[in-house]
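Course assignment 3, question 2. Fill in each field.
Student: A.L.
Task: Predict the tertiary structure for the chain below.
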Amino acid sequence: MRLCSALIAATTLAAATPLPALAQDAYPSRPVTMIVPFAPGGSSDVIARIVGEELSRALGQRIVHENVAGAGGTLGLARVAAATPDGYTIVQGNAGTNASSYALYPDLKFKPSAFTPVAMVAKTTSLIALRKDFPAKTVAEFLDYAKKNPNAVRLGHAGVGSNNYIICRSFLGAAGSIEVTLVSYRGGGPALNDAIGGHIDGVCDSASSAAPSIQGGQVKGLVLASDKRLPSLPDVPTAAEAGVPEFQPGGWNAIFAPAGTPKEIVAALNKAVRKALTGELIASRYPDLGVFVPSDKELAPEFLQSHVDIEIEKHRKLLAVK
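Answer field:
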């Protein structure tokens, strides 16, 4: 009996003792869900799918994309803020979702501290594109038309607070005293589709989303928020060339995890992102889309955190929300 009791006690003790770290499943041991807080087809979605394919190779696990659109991307952010911080739910955010939203939506259920920065994955080029039969061909002609027809011009964006909305506001600020109607969509993709269909006059978007439609003649590029023309869009003038040099909203996309995600998992994700951004798909697709790979410094989680802090304050001023 004593021997039996001793064996039972030893077995119970062994079961109650945590397994050493080396015996636990290494991260990631199953697919990772990447929330894209906009409808399919927009710039965030396009970049997420390109990065996701290379990130899947780097992690050795499938990246499951889930589009959670609405409220300028904040519905998707809320989903991630409430997720288990285990590295299996991440989100691709941008200047709209992770900066301007705090100025535009005071009743958000999450704060900036609800997210752990992982890495910036893309720097984007903003632009304004018009339906192909819009009467203006240049910014000067556009401004003249808008002044003669107050609020008649309808520009689409991916929702109030989205990066595309910031592009609209930046363009209007640089353009001066014109009045246009901004039309909100659940993502840049639906807005662009309506511009192609002639249901709205144009879109505020990123080259990563609109470039193929401009190249195909479905819409026409009006102006780039860039210091130099893009090889993929050689006929679209820069902001300075078009006479609106202050139109310079620098776009970016980055990966965030829920707050409380273990440091070793954040480090693993950051390492995988760095490897993913050296992939062949990135090298072949980014240039055509007017997207640039962040520098080594910009890939650090610490840089992303400080950048977000700066962006939040910048957008509070841009949006004139006290």
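Instructor remarks: The chain has two domains: 31-123+251-318, 126-242. Residues 301-318 form the longest helix (18 residues).
Grade: pending
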